[in-house]
Design brief:
CATH architecture: Alpha-Beta Barrel
Number of domains: 1
Order of helices and strands: EHEHEHEHHEHHEHEHEH
Radius of gyration: 17 Å
Shape: globular
Distance between the termini: 9 Å
Number of strands: 8
CATH class: Alpha Beta
CATH superfamily: Aldolase class I
């Protein structure tokens, strides 16, 4: 079995101007030279993508965006297309974040169209799925997540280069974190859903997102079906974000050592 690789994505949400982004990423890029088995990505606001692309160009930190529109162009005031993102050297794009679903009323078909647009135009979508507290209390979480995944995959033709991010909505920005056992159970379920959909499930990274920080990331990342993290508030603090990345690097190194022993 190949050693596990980790993807750590920082979602800055609506924080930092272009100047503030350039300053923060300049410091981050100076301190992160890369690590075997770990990919680091940052998703700043749209207005800071150009500044971020200049800083991250040819470096080990990848660039992502927080959203996109499903059409290539048109009369969609305030929106941004896949082509526009590609033009700014964006590689990843977050699709269906819980805040987009809840605050901006993005339903399943809308998220599915965005996912398909990202796949079609060569971006790597990070599809966010997850349940509310009420849905978990009524034991609907597995069906909710299955539906969200199936809706997106049905909209895209043979998607391969994408990521799933499980974010229990009740743990987003609340300081609450699902237990490592709960996370593994859901990630294992997601892996099974991908297999049912005919996807090479073992090749798809499944991230956890929900109040991830250095203090809890090791126990989360150490689970078999957890391939990384979608980090919110903690990604705005370089020391904290680098600590998370460093812990992922330690786990990747350990995984690589186990693989060499087994081979």
């Amino acid at each position: 079995m190949a050693a596990k690789k980790y993807l750590i994505v920082g979602n800055w949400k609506m924080h930092r101007t272009a100047r503030e982004t350039a300053e923060a990423l300049s410091h981050l890029a100076q301190r992160w030279s890369g690590a075997r088995g770990v990919t680091l990505a940052i998703c700043p606001p749209f207005t800071a993508l150009t500044a971020a692309a200049k800083i991250l160009s040819n470096g080990p930190i990848r660039l992502g965006a927080q959203n996109l529109h499903w059409e290539e162009e048109g009369a969609f005031t305030g929106e941004i297309s896949s082509a526009m993102l590609r033009d700014l050297s964006v590689e990843y794009v977050i699709v269906g974040h819980s805040e987009r679903r809840a605050l901006f009323h993005e339903d399943g078909p809308t998220v599915a169209k965005k996912f398909a647009a990202a796949v079609t135009h060569g971006l790597k979508p990070i599809l966010c799925v997850g349940e509310t507290e009420a849905e978990r209390e009524s034991d609907e979480q597995k069906e909710i997540v299955k539906r969200q995944i199936r809706e997106a995959l049905r909209a895209a033709e043979a998607p391969e280069n994408f990521t799933i991010a499980y974010e229990p909505i009740w743990a987003i920005g609340t300081g609450r974190t699902a237990t490592a056992e709960d996370v593994q159970l859901m990630h294992g379920h997601i892996r099974n859903v991908l297999r049912e959909c005919g996807v090479a499930a073992d090749r798809i990274p499944i991230l956890y997102g929900g109040s991830v920080k250095a203090a809890n990331c090791t126990q989360l990342l150490n689970r078999p079906d957890v391939d990384g993290a979608l980090v919110g508030g903690a990604s705005l603090r370089n020391d904290e974000f680098l600590a998370i990345a460093g812990l992922a690097a330690e786990l990747a190194k350990r995984e690589e050592g186990v693989e060499q022993i087994e081979s």
